[in-house]
Amino acid sequence: MTLKPDFSEPLLQVEQITKRFGGLLAVDSVSMKLFRGQVHALIGPNGAGKSTLVNLISGDTRPTFGRVYLQGADISGLPLHEVSQLGVARSYQHRNVFFHFSAFENCRLAAQSRLGSSMRLFRPAYKYQGVNEAAAHALDQVGLEHFDRIAATLSHGEIRQLEIAMSLATQPEVLLLDEPLAGMGAEESMRMIELISKLAPHHAVLLVEHDMDAVFRLANLLTVMVQGGVIASGDPATVKANRAVQEAYLGTD
Fold first, then answer.
1. Taking Cα atoms as reference points, which of 60, 55, 154, 71 lies closest to residue 107?
2. Within 13 Å and on the Cβ side, how many CA atoms surround 32?
3. In terms of Cα–Cα distance, which of 56, 108, 98, 100 is closest to 77?
4. pLDDT, tens digit, for every residue of 61-97?
5. How far apart are CA 126 and CA 122, in angstroms?
6. pTM score, two decimals?
7. Which CATH number fits domain 1-87+173-253: 3.40.50.300, 2.60.120.620, 3.30.70.1110, 3.30.1330.10?
8. What percent of the chain lies above the pLDDT cut of 90?
9. Are 191 and 142 within 8 A, CB to CB?
């Protein structure tokens, strides 16, 4: 069944979010809406504030000002684990897996976060059928066939797939993907583009990425940040033709 994007209400909404680190204004009054079935790309030069914005949305960092709403509920300033429990998952620029665990064990650990906190530590993890099924399903979604392989033996592209599988194991509504194609060759990049395309109909996706070919293949909307603020936002054709964006980031050729 093909899902149609739902633009009636945003899954996640950011209103005038701002972050200061002492005298540095890292993110300056940024607003955006993320909808299910839509890839919203966040682009701009290094140091523009993109990752800081993702940190503010995910709960890694508390905002100085502004609000974040998830399905209408204010989640501004909640810690990372609470935001995750509510349905927001993220990947990081740098690899973020347990390298001595297998791919399946990494995903199972992520899925276990949905069990909540109780005295379950006295029961072996492998006995939770629902957790095991969620981990296996997440790995299947990203196309990792060898669940028992140790993460340290996976290729760079496979580790990126594993990181997304770990996010999916938490059953999120919103996916925040911070440079998922970084360091990939052409074949690995194509697999990641296909994976994000497959996931988009079921999630609201915020994609931070420097690979402009991938961005323009995937994105329904783009927001461009420079020096902490937004200089343009709109559909790919409009943003690509924007003179300020060309001068600040894309180039004029």
1. 154
2. 31
3. 56
4. 999 999 999 999 999 989 999 999 999 999 988 878 8
5. 12
6. 0.90
7. 3.40.50.300
8. 73
9. no
